Here is the input.
Amino acid sequence: MRDFWYEAQKKAKKTARDRGFQGWNDVAVWRDFKPIYIPEDIWPHYLEHVTSERFTRRSHSGADNWNRSIHGGVTTHTGGSVPFAAHAKWMVRLI
Here is the structure.
């Protein structure tokens, strides 16, 4: 469901940007560009949700956690294609 709403928001922003609106990333600008597959009575509730203090706080917290630098690099939840044993040895060297 999260991806559905993210895509709807992205589509609204893109439409506002393509039509030359300044500040297209601001909810006040892209609120008038509801995707056609979202019902008229649902869109205002979604916009109210994404502008709420709780949503904004959690969004910033998640972004801060995602972009936090540890040991000189941005954190991710993967080790890539490195085998677990090699990754563990590399982590020991960092400590």
